[in-house]
## 1
Amino acid sequence: MWRTTTRFLLPLTAVLALLAVVGHAALTRTTSRWFDADLALRSQLAIESARTSLIAHWDQRDHLVQVLAAITRDERIMGAATCGDDATLVATEAFPQAFTCHAIAREIERAGGEIATWTTTANGASDPVRVTATRFPRGAIILVHDLSYLERREATTRNLLLIAFLVLALVTAGVTMLAARLAWHGWTKQLRRALGGNPTADFRPLVRDVRTLVERLVGEREEGVRAGPWGPERLRAALTHHLQGERVVILANREPYIHERTADGIRVVHPASGLVTALEPVMRACSGVWVAHGSGSADRDMVDARDIVRVPPGEESYEVRRVWLSEQEEDGYYYGFSNEGLWPLCHVAHTRPVFRATDWEHYVRVNQRFADAVCEVVDSADPVVLVQDYHFALAPRMIRERLPKATILTFWHIPWPNAERFGICPWREQLLDGLLGSSIVGFHTQQHCNNFIDSVDAFMESRIDREATAVIQGRHRTLVRPYPISIEWPVHWVETSPPIDACRAGVRAELGLAPDALLGVGIDRLDYTKGIEERLSAVDQLLEHHPEFRGKFTFAQLAAPSRTKIQHYKDLNERIERLADQINRKWSRDDYRPIALLREHHEPATVFRYYRAAELCYVSSLHDGMNLVAKEFVAARDDERGVLVLSQFTGAARELTEALIVNPYDLMQAGNALATALRMPREEQRERMRSMRRLVSEFNVYRWAGRMLVDAASLRSRERLHGRLGTSGGP
Ligand code: G6P
């Protein structure tokens, strides 16, 4: 107890005593200011109340002395006097003899001519007095105030203050000691419980975990400053630093390289998929395994006995583990539940979802097959698994059941609808439960996170921590976070692209256009969410309302056939063909056609040549999680030219605000935006493009992956720590 007193109570009391001294000095200054003001007021009041008598008796000395004596009845006014214009002094008895009218007149002059206040011992007394001299119609009135009461008041204040601080010091010290004792008692009890009730248990493992966690958090901060922009190197370093370089396993339906059998032999195809565009550079940087559907006609020919092929061809830095699906499985799981059910459910594009029980059964079974494949390729009991997209809503729970310690990061690449809309799915609870097997569920935007949390709230038994945006079920916690996806930077396809002029000339020649023709591009899978019909209609509007572009502007739509077994996609294909024909017929002149519809798969090298050749790129999605075409166009334009016209219904519109943002349903607005883009001065194009390029270069896909992995690593450390404490892991 004595030790506690000396180590804690005494320093605290000393600090408070110091505060008392400082406080007292401040208080003295303040009370003295108040006193001065008080004094001036009292003098004025005294003079004003005697004003009539003073004026009336100014020349009658005896009467004047009586009036002055009446003023000194106030116990704090010791003496009073008047000075006439002729410097005659008339004063009460106690008025200090030493004062002369000349001296008083000087003081008044010095103070501005009206009123002077000063402290003096000029009366020869031991105590100082306060004097106020006020100009009056025929001279001046002088009052002498007693200062001793002020000193008495100050002394009383000082003593009270010291006593108050001392009491405060003692009470604060007592309360603090009591609280600290109670907290320490509770904390140690909790630790003992967590460590098996042994009061002499070794705390070292826990301390080690805490230290690791703190070091990691500090490291992260420093690393951010030190490491510079995100790129493959930094991502690799983050993986080594935060996750001990564990290899990453990605689960995604679409594989990054498809081997197709052609008349000329086996060809490697890069699929048209935003997901692949984003994740492939991440895998090249991190290495590991990508588990995917082996969908190519020559895929089986390329794998080893474990169904693994090393990619990228010629570089072989990571593995693709192919999973084979029967036609029925593909129909039910991929075409059926994923693309006729979940895809239209999540996109507001006015296509009704179709939910068939047989499709659902395939979806469940195929999810299990992929989850098993993931568990086969991992090389530890606590691997990092990145589950991708709506094809695998059930896999996170299935993986968690086999690998309870796995860190599972699920990223949903498409929008998440509001709870009411999501609720129409007959298997809504199962889907949510599957996803909640994840450690983190990521979306492109906060809005999609909110929709997901609302859906969980509406349909699941769980606790929602809205502040930390986490869902808690028993001891398991799933964080729900926005991670806006992006592309690699620099894009390797740009580095191998021909110069801009060569692209411009080459593409115009391929399309049969004049060298100075104006060109717009649209690059998409042929999908009803992309708003391709609205886009072509906007071109029609442009030509209708801006005749100067007739015969000069051509829009090249590169449309990769997609999910062609689904009736909606077949219908869309036909509708787009008819619409393009119709617009072309309407505006054709000689060999001029405003729309070039190229419905086939284009490899990235071609796509980038088109981006680089065009005056503008129009992304008109009716609803899109992010849309990486917009970001690719920006990346392609190292000449800082070209205008992006972008639908407001894409995630990208939140980041690329220097694009011309349009409502794709508003055809007139979109047509006018195309005209604005074509007329935009070079300098403005440069400014807008430069700013967007800066953003995409910084917020690239390495940063996207890095942030998720770093978050996963902190979650892991915290879970380990909380595991030891026997509490549920906080975010
Ligand atoms: C979207 C999805 C991806 C998918 C891509 C291409 O971007 O989010 O998961 O890979 O479309 O579609 P596909 O069905 O051909 O893989």
## 2
Amino acid sequence: MSRTVYVNGDYMPESDAKISIFDRGFLMADGVYEVTSVLGGKLIDFDGHAKRLERSLTELDMASPISIEDLLAVHRELVTRNEVVDGLVYLQITRGAPADRDFAFPDPNETPSTIVLFTQNKPGLAQSPAAQKGMKVISIEDIRWGRRDIKTVQLLYPSMGKMMAKKAGADDAWMIQDGHVTEGTSNNAYIVKGNKIITRPTSNEILHGITRAAVLRFAQEAQMEVEERLFTIDEAKEADEAFITSASTFVMPVVEIDGVALGDGSPGRVAPRLREIYLEESMKRAVSSRFTFSAKAF
Ligand code: PLP
């Protein structure tokens, strides 16, 4: 089935979607993005993603071409038109396409931002077999820029990190800066010691994960102990458990780091329980994609 996508105010078949070669997203990676998951046709934590999008745009002094209300309407419309039951909505906003290539930002009054949204169907997204098995990670140096809190489309190093992991027979890479784990290539990183969940505090050095914020809140509500502090990769290898969070993987156990098995090499107690709580609680708060619902449907 050909997807219906959204480009600068219009819905169209994906084969008709076109962006200028002068678009700054293409030439300069001058753009931001969000990924919102869809479970059972409902949008998970749309508000969180919309808020972070606004922050990314503000930090880069980039104009938004759309209001949050309209953005929600586009998300719902695309999910409905593409009959997405489980999957993702990808959204990208760039600083637009000026008449020529130039390092200086174009005048936003003359060059409107570009906005693109499309859906990805992922049947059974929440029933991933990887969640039962757990994943293996390797560690790599974090050589990304210093504003990782802005969700930009500069994803070359994370892509290279995933390829390094693949080559090493692992599923993903955790990045290390000054001896401490920053985050995964496309997720936030956690270790568990005893009953304590340990994760790096938010700063410019990591993306402020929307799933991270929800998981930490749910963990505290469930009387689980959370400590936000730096941890080393050696500490992680000696942890009882480890896991990652992201909008597309929710909570995913990590069972091996640099070839070292954690515990007995299978998912422990805490990560699978957090996954359960996260899925249950987020579904309760999810926004229905059906156009006929004008307000949040729980
Ligand atoms: N960290 C990085 C570098 C990411 O790219 C992502 C998601 O793409 C995350 C963390 C997790 O963020 P979220 O939970 O909002 O998906």
